[in-house]
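Changelog-linked ticket: guanosine-5'-monophosphate example.
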Amino acid sequence: MSESDDCLFCKIIAGQIPSSKVYEDETTYAFNDINPKAKVHVLVVPKKHYANVAELAAGDPTELAHIVSIAQNIADKEFHGAYRLVFNTGLDAGQTVFHVHAHVMTGEKLDE
Ligand code: 5GP
Ligand code: ZN
């Protein structure tokens, strides 16, 4: 069994678990967070499984830049280009799903 066989976000990307899709292309999938922390709270994930943002940055920096540009596009549409981009990394930082995901929070003025 590979790492991704037991990964919630790999299953969402494969369509085995339903999600509310915001954007999709060949390499990347974006969907609404099930427990939103802002008016608009989207998770942007590479279709290829990487455990965290450091692994993605080392393995595919172009995809990391692509994820940032998708976040920008969502915020351009939802809130004049303003957004918060968060990659929780490690259990003690609150990472609960070990398939890298950008939290894009936007759509309203955010608390500091
Ligand atoms: P983390 O805590 O790992 O940074 O973020 C995981 C995020 O995934 C959380 O914000 C959580 O609400 C979201 N999440 C967990 N399970 C599901 C799910 O089944 N569907 C969706 N759309 N989001 C999920
Ligand atoms: Zn995965």
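Closing comment: Example verified and attached. Residues 3-106 form a domain with the HIT family, subunit A fold (CATH 3.30.428.10). The chain has one domain: 3-106.
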